[in-house]
Each structure stands twice: as C-alpha cells, then as structure tokens.
Write a structure and sequence with these properties.
The protein has about 120 residues and is an all-beta fold. About 0% of the residues lie in helices and about 65% in strands. It has one domain: Jelly Rolls, CATH 2.60.120.
C-alpha cells in the first residue's frame, strides 16, 4: 500500500501584525503529483491578541483567470484561537488575505495549508 503524500505550504509565518496584509502568492501544485484541483486544509493559529475591540478576518483566495476569488474563510477572530477549514478544488495559485481592525490591534498568528 502506498502512503498518502501531503504538501505543506506556509502562507504566513507566525508574526505580530498590526495592519492588514496579503500573503505572497503560492504555487499549490509545484512538485505535486496532483496537477489539477485537489483538496486542502487551511490552518489558522492566533496566539496573541491585544488592542481595543480587535478583529481579524482571513480569507483564502485562489487566482482564476487573473482574478482573486474567495475559496474559504475563517471565522472572525477577536481572541486567541485555532481553526481549520477545508478547501475543495484548490486552484494552482493561492494566498491568504487578512484584514485587521479595531483600535491599536495587534495579532500574532500564522496561516498554513496542507494539500491532500
């Protein structure tokens, strides 16, 4: 029996962030036996939150015909949290789009993808 292969992709490394940010675009198919589609899990790990009424909204976006589309969204974070979402039919190019709000917000978090 052949062991299933997974591909781990770091979208945003763990760091403190005080402003909205998009990750770099990543090639979700590079070096992968699956050249089209495929499923993935996206992981959010928020470890520190400060500020007044801080909010963090993160979408996973896929590039299709040179347009960024939301393919998955995490629940809005306002406190320390870990969350996993399932993505289906992952496009070749993806990124994390993060919007930070509130008064003097500061979030330490990371976003990872694991492709099936």
């Amino acid at each position: 029996m052949t062991a299933k292969r997974y591909k781990e992709i770091e979208l945003l490394a763990s760091a403190s962030r005080i402003a909205s940010v998009n990750s770099s675009s990543v090639d979700t198919h590079s070096g992968d036996v699956h050249s089209e589609g495929g499923n993935a899990r996206a992981f959010l790990d928020v470890t520190v939150v400060t500020g007044t009424s801080p909010t963090l909204d993160i979408d996973i976006e896929g590039l299709i015909n040179n347009i960024w589309y939301v393919i998955g969204s995490f629940t809005q974070a306002a406190a320390v949290v870990r969350e996993t979402i399932i993505l289906t039919s992952l496009p070749k190019t993806a990124r994390a789009a993060c919007v930070i709000g509130g008064a003097s917000p500061d979030f330490t978090f990371e976003v990872q993808l694991v492709k099936d």
